[in-house]
Known about the structure:
Blueprint: H1 16-25, E1 29-34, H2 49-72, E2 76-85, H3 99-119, E3 125-131, H4 146-153, H5 164-175, E4 186-189
Parallel strand pairs: 1-2, 2-3, 3-4
Helix pairs in contact: 1-2, 2-3
Amino acid sequence: MEGAGHEQIKLDLTDGSALEQFVKSLPEIDGCVNNAGIGGKLPIAFIKRSDLQSILDINMIAPVMLTQLLVKKKKMKRGSSMVLTSSISGVFSVDIGNAMYSITKSAIDGFMKNAAIELAVKGIRVNSVNPGMVETPINNIDSFTEDQKKRDMANYPMQRYGHPNDVAWGIIYLLSDASSWVTGTRLKIDGGYSL
Length: 195
């Protein structure tokens, strides 16, 4: 990312006291990207409570608790922006075995809309990005056969998967003053998949 003052932080978001200590240590900030997430592919018949709890803890509960702490500790400046990473999986059934992940991403979009309403009075904008398939290690695209890739890419009018920068530019827009009148919005970045 261009510019100065950006910081990438590694933290166990499921550890409530560590999360609180982290937020206390922050100066007042003007932007936050909630991007932590894990996948979990299991057919519904094989989902265990522990599997579901694990993905809920990271993908849904942690962003809610982080947002709450940032607001309660008055760490978000007036005019600041928060971006939550969701997925088109929260809106579309994209694959068998994707129920747990889809549940968490639907929940994040629901939370985003409610947070946008509640935090607007504080001058804080809250939006989400909803990427389609992005070529990252978490998606393990290299494990697909060429035939699987070809069939899957047929769902994308742009005939390719996304790259991390495709999503990053959307996040930069939502963090910037260029989107100063945008809140409660799901920004689809999916190569046309959702058309």
